[in-house]
TrEMBL record:
Top-level taxonomy: Bacteria, Bacillati, Actinomycetota, Actinomycetes, Kitasatosporales
Membrane topology: Multi-pass membrane protein
Species of the source: Actinacidiphila rubida
Chief location: membrane
Family in the record: Belongs to the glycosyltransferase 87 family.
Protein name: Uncharacterized membrane protein
UniProt-listed InterPro entries: GT87, UCP010361
Length: 492
């Protein structure tokens, strides 16, 4: 006899949205594995396989494929002179920085100066990464056996890759659990070609996983815990602090400033706990990241590089231009959040503010796509649009390595500056396309796939179903949440 609890579990499973039911691209793609999902999904003849376990296995497989893509560099190209690591598109910062930042010499990050003979550059004297990322790098060096320089650098890449694979699994699980009714949205993160290609280029995936965990905790109505994770993510990479801005405007509109205050306070405390010891004991080493970021010139992948090279005029004030553009874009996002007839979802505003940074920044490394990946899935979980955007990012991934092969190689095999500008433009247009789709969903909520079942903001935590108390322009829109329909407590 079926118990009441079993029936409730079945009901909850039936409420889950399956992408093959609502997304034609997902339904078409499912033909490769037997067609769209039925009413009851059995994988391998067992109910043990739930969405989280399936997606964890998928992302591990994709991560392994990404590591295999770096195989030619692992065997030799990282350490051979010339352009082979770029021509084979398998470059990674990790093995190069093992020696260049003193990990192979047992230097202590932020405390020990890096000799010019080691770093190969007179401009870097301390590790130029945020503190928590520096700790991640140091932990990986602890488990790396010191042998010859080449073998140790390879082992260092393997150690970091193992730790980053854990981050990838955490990322997928957190995205899948952020919207309980749409766990399969995490599958796009797991299958992302951009994640597979860029996960082991640098250490960004660590901050991305912490950010996704913070978003998940916010969706569970735990703003203080979410703030801790956002603060830790900001201690690993600077961009997650922008999520606090997104939360501010939405909490202002919904009258949830106390929850925002809890998130802000815990984020500041977490950031200080990580950074303050290094600030007090190694101030110059701690400041290296911020000095490097401020003085870094126009670099690969940015809009400003196109402008500078097309005009043949160096942009001496690129910091001012980039900052001004960022402020204008963020002001536009804030206005959108406060003027829209219906309050935007947290995933939408978070995606737009981080996209504003991507578009205005003076550099765009290929792994920066990871910053947007979980937010894009939360903002616009449509496979067609996500695949269009991912295609432009893969094109840029190939474009930057072909450009570096042209610049560093003696035979100049690769992309000329004009061709590379097209690759940058494709990436920028891909981000702008996804931004346009998200803005359309905000202005025309009937097009928002997340809200088509009557939900308000399933990832919004305390924002979900809240009434607006501060709106600019039109009168506030009544929240439409599934819980209201069940309880009969429609707002009037």
């Amino acid at each position: 006899m079926t118990s009441v609890r079993d029936r409730e579990d079945d009901d909850r499973r039936e409420l889950r949205v399956r992408p093959t039911d609502e997304d034609p691209v997902a339904a078409s793609g499912s033909e490769f594995i037997g067609g769209p999902a039925g009413r009851r999904i059995l994988i391998g003849g067992s109910r043990w396989w739930n969405p989280l376990r399936v997606m964890a296995l998928v992302v591990i497989g994709m991560f392994a494929l990404g590591m295999a893509q770096k195989a030619s560099c692992y065997t030799q190209d990282w350490f051979l002179p010339g352009d082979l690591q770029y021509a084979h598109a398998c470059y990674s910062d990790i093995p190069h920085l093992y020696d260049q930042r003193g990990f192979g010499s047992d230097l202590v990050p932020y405390f020990d100066r890096i000799p010019d003979s080691v770093s190969g550059s007179g401009s870097v004297h301390y590790l130029e990464y945020p503190v928590l990322t520096g700790l991640f790098m140091e932990v990986a060096s602890w488990v790396t056996p010191h042998d010859t320089a080449t073998k140790s650098a390879q082992a260092y890449w393997i150690a970091n890759s193992a730790m980053l694979m854990v981050c990838a699994v955490v990322l997928v699980v957190c995205v899948a659990r952020t919207n309980k009714r749409r766990p399969w949205d995490g599958l796009f993160v797991a299958l992302s070609p951009a994640l597979a290609l860029t996960a082991t280029i640098n250490w960004d995936l660590f901050a991305v996983a912490l950010t996704a965990a913070g978003m998940m905790l916010w969706s569970r109505g735990r703003p203080a815990a979410a703030g801790v994770l956002i603060g830790l993510a900001t201690a690993a990479k600077l961009y997650p602090v922008l999520l606090l801005g997104a939360l501010l405007v939405l909490c202002l509109r919904a009258g949830r400033l106390r929850s925002f205050g809890a998130a802000l306070g815990s984020a500041a405390a977490a950031w200080l706990i990580v950074n303050l010891p290094v600030i007090l004991l190694a101030q110059h080493g701690w400041a290296e990241f911020y000095t490097f970021s401020r003085t870094r010139p126009t670099d690969y992948g940015s809009l400003w590089l196109i402008i500078s090279e097309r005009a043949r005029i160096p942009l001496s004030n690129v910091n001012a231009y980039a900052t001004a553009m960022m402020l204008v874009l963020c002001a536009g996002v804030a206005a959108l959040a406060l003027f829209a007839r219906r309050r935007p979802r947290i995933g939408q505003i978070a995606f737009l503010v981080v996209a504003a940074l991507i578009l205005s920044n003076k550099v765009y490394s290929p792994q920066y796509v990871l910053w947007l990946l979980p937010l894009a899935v939360l903002a616009r979980p449509r496979w067609r649009d996500l695949l269009i955007w991912q295609a432009t990012e893969v094109l840029y991934f190939l474009g930057i390595w072909m450009r570096l092969a042209y610049v560093t190689g003696t035979k100049h095999h690769g992309l000329t500056s004009d061709a590379y500008h097209l690759a940058i433009a494709a990436h920028l247009l891909g981000v702008l396309y996804l931004c346009a789709m998200v803005v359309r969903d905000i202005l025309l909520p009937q097009h928002d796939v997340v809200r088509q079942d009557g939900a308000d903001d399933p990832a919004g935590g305390v924002l979900d179903g809240a009434q607006d108390v501060f709106v600019l322009g039109a009168a506030p829109h009544e929240p439409k949440h599934a819980a209201h329909a069940v309880s009969g407590q429609h707002l009037t």
